[in-house]
Amino acid sequence: MKLPVKLILPALVLGASFVLKAEEHIVEVITDNEQGITSFKPKFLRVAQGDTVTWVNITDDLHNVITYPDGFPSGSTGFESPYFEKAGDSWSYTFEQKGTYQYHCIPHILMGMRGVVTVATPTPPNRFHKPSKDEIVAYRGKLLEFFDSEEFSIMPDAVRRNVKD
Predict the structure, then answer these.
(1) How does 106-144 read in b/e, with b if 16+ C-beta sit within 10 Å?
(2) Quick one: 96 and 144 in the same domain?
(3) Is 99 exposed, middle or buried (0-12, 13-18, 19+ CB in 10 A)?
(4) How far, in Å, are 15, 31, 107, 118, 142 from residue 147 at the CA level?
(5) How crowded is the C-beta side of 14, counted as CA atoms within 13 Å?
(6) What is the pLDDT of residues 117-141, one digit of tens each?
(7) Which helix (H) or strand (E) holds 154?
(8) Using CA atoms, how far apart are residues 141 and 149, in angstroms rounded to an integer?
(9) Cβ neighbours of residue 22 closer than 8 Å, sequence gap 6 or more
């Protein structure tokens, strides 16, 4: 059955106008000193491929946003913001690759300040990035800027024996 041209032409014009635009999302970086809580709000966020997420510091407190060394899809790259120091400081990242990105704040990792961005579909457990020894050592160095090696150890014993502080 053929449709009349009168019906096809408007459908093509309307269809062409439904091009999806990338969206921008805001994650608040929160310190609530009265409650003793630091958090990302929302903690879990699902976005489309090509969307941008902007983290905004809500209070005058030191924060950052960094992926875990094995917290992003294989074949993609992790991210790391500069440190936020005052209310209004912000940083944005555009997610070009699908998957799950697990991140945290270095100064408040021990307080459980972490979040997840899922781009389109979650990453299967066997498809996360496998960090090299050098990546783990570099990540450990960033943590040791805030923590003594005795109070915070993330390295497996086999790697720790081969790394000097």
Answers:
(1) bbbbeeebbbbbbbeeebeeeebbebeeeebbebbeebe
(2) no
(3) buried
(4) 55, 19, 9, 29, 9
(5) 5
(6) 999 999 999 999 999 999 999 999 9
(7) none
(8) 10
(9) 48, 50, 51, 52, 94
Please tell me the pTM assigned to this model: 0.79
Is the Cβ–Cβ distance between 156 and 141 less than 8 Å? no
For residue 86 the two structure tokens come to 């005052």
Shared-domain flag, residues 55 and 111: yes
DSSP 15-28: HHTTPPPP-EEEEE
Report the CATH number at residue 55: 2.60.40.420
| Domains identified in the chain, total number | 2
Q: Are residues 41 and 67 in the same domain?
A: yes
Same domain, 100 and 28: yes
Q: List CB contacts of 24: < 8 A, sequence separation 6 or more.
A: 51, 52, 53, 54, 92
Q: What residue numbers bound the domain in which 164 lies?
A: 131-165
Q: If you write DSSP's letter for every residue of 44-63 in order, what string do you get?
A: EEEE-TT-EEEEEE-SSS-B
Q: Which residue has the higher pLDDT, 43 or 1?
A: 43
